[in-house]
Design a protein that fits this description.
It is a single chain. By secondary structure, this protein is of the alpha+beta class. The chain contains 14 helices and eight strands. It is globular.
Length: 401
């Protein structure tokens, strides 16, 4: 029986023009554990969207690799750490989002498996785990090492649950004191308003204002569709309903966590930018994206989600460099800035938590009181006012008499 190994498969395009078709590639394993690459046709590119092709890809890969794992014989503790992780741990994480899975696997492949992958899982003790974490310091930040430790704890805990080992050797491990503090720069109001004033394109300005003043995650900004934009002029109410994200050129009907799915109030200046974009947009149908790709030498198809990294590099970073801001500006930095400025302006920690939609109050601070919605509206307005008040006023010219 082939060994079950979690995999997503690869979606590729074979051929060109009217004959171009989507295909899926994935690996199948024989009894001896040897693998071969299998390719199956999905359908013509002209007849289906990439989203439909990805859905079909998942069905094909799931069916092709749906065999059960073989019962483990002999001494379980002799199984290598990597084999356990890939064949006995990942397969249980069917509820992970694509983004979380990709990030988690990348961290394991780069920080954990090179050190522990080839070792028998039962041979790894707490001293070895701590030594592995210590070796990451001071090159990597405390945040990175904390994520590595969390993954080690999770894998070993599952090994205990499946009776491969008796104790979790990572449970009492600690973050080395020599690990450097993570770089968490805050953008000043003066830097923000200078950057905003340099954005002349309606779409670029709307993207940046939404990401900045609505304190949204990158995947949320680029996954916004017009049906998520709600503006009731009579009631004076405007908000974005966050219930989907963009990831690697696809729209996913999910959010990072339950707390992320919420209404995000829109400030007056951000609303003005969105309405201007709405006037200039060719497609404002409910499912059309606010910031869909125009495919100007880009990676995405017209109307599909833009690739954030490309947009940030082409549209934002040149301005950042021109202004002499000594760090990269992205929506992680603007979320951090929003949290700081909201609290500095008198907003409670709980208000900042609600605005950023963190799942745990501890992510923002250990405050468990749920704020009223009006406090968040005020916080967004005050945040916008603070930044725009930082604009340097040009001196009035005096006419000669």
């Amino acid at each position: 029986m082939a060994r079950a190994r979690f995999q997503e498969g690869s979606l590729i395009i074979v051929g060109a023009g009217s004959k171009a078709r989507y295909c899926v590639q994935y690996r199948i394993y024989d009894v001896a554990g040897k693998s071969r690459l299998k390719k199956e046709s999905i359908g013509l590119v002209s007849k289906m969207s990439r989203r439909e092709a990805n859905k079909k890809k998942t069905e094909i890969v799931t069916k092709g690799t749906s065999q059960l794992p073989e019962p483990v014989g002999g001494n379980k503790s002799d199984m290598t750490f990597e084999t356990f992780y890939r064949e006995r741990f990942l397969i249980l994480k069917a509820n992970w989002s694509k983004a979380h899975r990709k990030n988690s696997i990348w961290q394991m492949d780069n920080y954990v498996l090179p050190k522990f992958g080839s070792l028998a899982i039962g041979s790894i003790d707490k001293v070895m785990v701590q030594a592995g974490l210590n070796s990451l310091s001071p090159r990597y930040s405390k945040s990175t090492i904390r994520h590595v430790r969390e993954k080690l704890v999770a894998v070993f805990e599952e090994a205990v649950e499946q009776e491969f080992i008796n104790r979790n050797p990572a449970k009492k491990s600690t973050i080395p004191t020599e690990a450097r503090a993570p770089k968490q720069p805050i953008i000043t109001p003066e830097q923000l308003i200078q950057l905003i004033d340099k954005l002349s394109d309606a779409r670029d300005k709307a993207i940046f204002l939404v990401g900045t003043f609505c304190a949204m995650r990158t995947s949320e900004v680029f996954g916004l569709s017009w049906k998520q934009f709600h503006h009731n002029k009579a009631k004076g109410e405007s908000y974005l309903m966050i219930d989907q994200i963009a990831f690697e050129g696809e729209v996913l009907l999910t959010t990072k966590n339950d707390a992320s799915e919420a209404k995000v109030p829109i400030g007056g200046r951000t609303l003005k930018a969105i309405l201007q974009l709405q006037k200039e947009s060719k497609d404002t149908s409910p499912d059309a994206l606010l910031f869909g790709s125009t495919n100007k030498n880009g990676r995405s198809k017209i109307g599909a989600p833009m690739y954030p990294g490309i947009w940030l590099r082409k549209k934002i970073q040149p301005i950042v460099d021109e202004l002499g801001i000594p760090f990269r500006v992205n929506f992680r930095a603007t979320r951090r800035t929003a949290s700081t400025m909201v609290q500095d302006s008198g907003g409670s920690l709980a208000t900042a938590q609600f605005l950023l939609r963190h799942a745990s109050p501890g992510t923002t601070a250990a405050v468990y009181t749920k704020p009223v919605h009006e406090s968040v509206k005020r916080a967004v307005k005050d945040y916008e006012d603070l930044v725009y008040a930082s604009r340097v006023k040009k001196p009035k010219s005096v006419r000669a008499k």
